[in-house]
Design brief:
It is a single chain. By secondary structure, the chain is of the alpha+beta class. Among the domains are: 145 residues, no CATH class; 96 residues, no CATH class. It contains 14 helices and 21 strands. The strands form 6 sheets. It has a 6-stranded antiparallel β-sheet with strand order 4-5-6-7-10-11. Strands 1-2-3-8-9 form a 5-stranded antiparallel β-sheet, with no helix packed on it. Strands 14-15-16 form a 3-stranded antiparallel β-sheet. The two termini are 20 Å apart.
């Protein structure tokens, strides 16, 4: 079966809109008018309801009756047997077909609906209006070729994983946008609400893209690394209007809120750096063997090393040798209970990422003959590991976070992620395994929740306060593998793949009790799609 045919059943025009790689146009079903569509534009930090291109679009037959959507394919939406809607390049839609029909388009300008009949030929819809078009067949053929070329890259996986892998590969293609002035394609987390290149997302997305389009995977890291500050800090987001690297880059209201949340250590009157967890080396290592470009790797490893130094030089806010998160945004786990504490927060996941990154930098230094660099990174990783071990609370049985130096009374997934270092003494590994096996903690029907169930702030559906995230599961599976638990690692991978299929697609996060999509979770989510592909390839080898 062709990948495009596997994808069509998922294209419901609700959770998965009709779109095109490189386009900002999204076509949805109209929630209020049967047999109508609505067209919106995906823009950075703008609600889709504020970016309406076409309020309603209907195809009418010769008697003026609305024709229902009969099928949705990656390259076209069909109305009945004769009329199709497709893209005419990234910035326009084309409607055409045989027989007698009319397109009725209601624009947000408030003018009367525009109606063009089949006698007028094809209809072309752009941001500037609706007009007669031409060569609808050519537009359809060009759109088909774009998707055929994309699906030709779909990674080969096990038969039971093929349908969802094809859909996840569609999601990655659908989420491609061009960022003005950046000279590269960004695979955004979602055209439904997340239009920009978030640093952390780029790492996970590149990990999945490498299996079918390693050049596009490299572009994600080039964008993530290409806007570092003079001090080495990597920005949180690269977007249409610039970058997000500081609280001063936020709107004034957000900036004031952040400053009010400051602490005695993190000066609330000063700008707060905004970044994402240091998984840059983890992502870069995954492209080795897929991208043949020594100059790219030389430049990228240098950017990673400077970023690592930034964490220890500029984000160790209390000077104790252990960097902290200066703001929840920088953790990626914005709403986690660990950030109910006073800022800054020293968190065991950050320690684990920094240990892993220094270990990988040491390996890179050895590979290029830099003995001094290898020694420096290895020594710093060992110091950080000692500080991480000191975060273990024996009575509670988990690694604690600390807010402004005080222990945080919340057990979350950050306490599990030190497995990723592969360097934990056995008693800590045993403690984490006990937590994973405990139904009052992390042994939920669908694993792994992001907060222990016994915590008062646990929620099945509130972001980062309980729901399962594919990226956390993927990191934990890797942590189990490198910590001497390969069978448990494989079991978690298989469960994660089943979760995405059970939940109906690569959503932002999942209910750990039902495996379903919580109401506020975004659909067609980039890193969930990419990591499904990555894990599916892994278990299909």
């Amino acid at each position: 079966m062709r990948a495009a045919d596997r994808v069509s059943p998922f294209l419901d025009l609700e959770s998965a809109p009709f779109t095109l790689p490189g386009s900002r146009i999204l076509v949805f079903r109209d929630a209020g008018l049967p047999d109508a569509l609505t067209v919106r534009l995906a823009e950075y930090e703008r609600d889709l309801d504020d970016c309406v291109l076409v309020r309603t679009l209907r195809v009418l037959d010769g008697d003026g009756r609305a024709v229902a959507v009969s099928a949705v394919h990656p390259d076209r939406i069909s109305f009945g047997p004769d009329v199709t809607l497709t893209f005419d390049g990234p910035s326009a839609l084309s409607v055409g077909g045989d027989g007698v029909w009319t397109v009725e388009v209601d624009l947000p300008s408030g003018d009367s609906p525009v109606a063009l009949a089949s006698a007028d030929g094809a209809v072309r819809i752009t941001s500037t209006g609706v007009a007669r078009g031409a060569a609808h067949a050519d537009a359809l053929a060009a759109t088909s070729r774009i998707w055929e070329d994309w699906f030709a890259r779909t990674p080969a996986v096990r038969a039971d994983l093929a349908d969802m892998t094809a859909f996840c590969w569609w999601v990655l293609g659908a989420n491609i946008v061009s960022l003005p002035g950046r000279g590269a394609r960004a695979v955004v987390p979602s055209k439904i609400g997340y239009v920009g290149l978030w640093q952390w997302d780029a790492y996970f997305i590149a990990s999945g893209l490498r299996h079918g389009d390693p050049d596009l995977a490299r572009e994600q890291l080039e964008l993530a690394f290409g806007y570092a500050g003079a001090d080495g800090q990597l920005p949180d987001v690269v977007h249409d209007e610039g970058i997000l690297a500081s609280s001063d880059d936020l709107p004034p209201g957000d900036r004031d809120n952040l400053r009010r949340a400051g602490s005695a250590i993190a000066d609330p009157t000063a700008p707060i750096p905004l970044t994402k967890p240091p998984l840059a080396a983890w992502a870069l290592r995954r492209l080795e063997g897929y991208v043949d470009d020594p100059a790219f790797f030389d430049s990228a490893w240098e950017a990673v090393a400077r970023s690592q130094d930034w964490w220890f030089t500029h984000s160790d806010l209390d000077g104790d040798g252990m960097p902290e998160y200066g703001h929840p945004y920088s953790s990626g786990l914005d709403d986690s209970p660990v950030f109910d504490a006073e800022l800054p927060v020293a968190s065991p996941d950050l320690a684990a990422y920094l240990i892993l990154q220094d270990d990988l930098l040491a390996g890179r230094a050895r590979a290029v003959g830099d003995a001094d660099g290898a020694t420096r990174h290895t020594a710093r990783a060992s110091r950080t590991l000692a500080l991480l071990e000191a975060m273990w609370d024996e009575s509670a049985g988990y690694f604690r976070s600390y807010g402004a130096g005080a222990p945080v009374d919340a057990e979350t997934a950050v306490s599990l992620l030190p497995l990723l270092t592969g360097r934990l003494p056995g008693r800590y590994v045993a403690g984490i395994l006990a937590a994973l096996d405990d139904p009052t903690r992390f042994a939920t029907p669908w694993s792994v929740p992001t907060v222990a169930r016994r915590e008062p702030d646990y929620s099945d559906e509130r972001m980062w306060r309980g729901p399962v995230w594919v990226n956390v599961n993927a990191l934990l599976a890797e942590g189990l593998a490198v910590s001497g638990q390969p069978e448990r690692s494989r079991a978690l991978i298989e469960e994660t793949l089943r979760l995405v299929m059970h939940g109906g697609g690569p959503h932002e996060y999942y209910n750990p009790s039902t495996g379903g999509k919580p109401p506020r979770a975004t659909t067609a989510f980039g890193w969930s799609a990419a990591l499904f592909v990555d894990l599916a390839v892994q278990v299909s080898a």
